[in-house]
Write a structure and sequence with these properties.
The complex is a heterodimer.
Chain A: E1 3-11, E2 16-22, H1 29-37, H2 44-60, E3 68-69, E4 77-80, E5 87-95, E6 98-106, H3 116-137, E7 142-143, E8 148-149, E9 153-155
Parallel strand pairs in A: 2-6
Antiparallel strand pairs in A: 1-2, 1-9, 3-4, 4-5, 5-6, 7-8
Chain B: H1 8-13, H2 17-40, H3 44-51, H4 55-62, H5 70-80
Helix pairs in contact in B: 3-4
The chains are: A alpha+beta, B mainly alpha.
Chain lengths: 156, 87
């Protein structure tokens, strides 16, 4: 079992963005994604395209139509981008104004389930969402229209 | 709550301005399209049928990532009887 902390990435009028960090790691999940592709000559155009969409989502909100639906029917896992790309960034879209940025990687298979790395990123987000919802029901975490109010860590 | 040790703005600033502007325009057009569809009471499937397109083409248009051609913009503007962009 690992402990996970929710961290604030950016707060705008239309969208608040968070990421998660395993306490055993030095970087959050989104920082790991950025560190992998920011300086990668081959994949930087795909990385920058995703970051351009992130910039617009901050301004316009995390509307459903800006994302590719991933995960299962009963979770909030989505991915960027919608159109063809060598990369995928997985996120949790909790509301039109709350987005949790996860990790991502090169898309080598048709579906994320066929790739252990991608499936791991999706499962981390799915587990975190289940815990978050449990804590909301228990009254330990509050989710408003555009904020998650908590200082606790989560046992994933 | 702690803040992540990463600056989105620094990452955005590394992207060429014209590419950022291209994406801003694509999102603005997709938002305008979504507004006009809602105003007309059309969901994605009905809109696709009305235009003789596949629903996944409408998904692309609404994603904010599509690079619209002048001919598509003209077709949409004609369909709605309203401008999509103002030049």
């Amino acid at each position: 079992m690992s402990e996970v902390e929710l961290l604030l990435v950016n707060s705008g009028e239309s969208c608040t963005m968070y990421t998660i960090q395993f306490l055993s790691d030095e970087q959050s999940e989104f920082e790991k994604f950025v560190a992998k592709f920011r300086q990668d000559a081959e994949l930087n155009p795909d990385f920058q395209a995703i970051m351009r969409f992130v910039e617009q989502i901050l301004s316009n909100g995390a509307l459903e139509r800006y994302f590719r639906r991933e995960g299962k029917m009963n979770d909030s896992v989505v991915a960027l981008p919608v159109l063809k790309s060598k990369l995928r960034l997985y996120c949790l879209r909790l509301t039109d104004k709350i987005l949790i940025l996860g990790n991502g990687d090169v898309k080598r298979s048709r579906t994320y389930e066929e790739d252990n790395t991608l499936q791991g990123y999706v499962m981390d987000l799915q587990k975190f969402e289940r815990l978050l919802k449990q804590e909301v029901r228990a009254g330990n975490v509050e989710i408003t229209e555009k904020e998650i109010l908590t200082d606790k860590t989560f046992d994933v | 709550m702690r803040t992540a040790n990463i600056s989105l703005q620094e990452i955005f600033n590394e992207i060429p301005d014209e590419k950022r502007e291209e994406t801003r325009l694509s999102f603005a057009i997709s938002n305008r399209l979504a507004f006009l569809m809602q105003e007309r009471g059309l969901n994605k499937k009905q809109f696709a049928e009305a235009l003789g397109k596949r629903p996944n083409e409408i998904t692309r248009w609404l994603s904010g990532e599509h690079n619209f051609t002048i001919s598509t913009l003209a077709m949409l503007s004609t369909f709605f009887g309203k401008s999509i962009i103002n030049v």
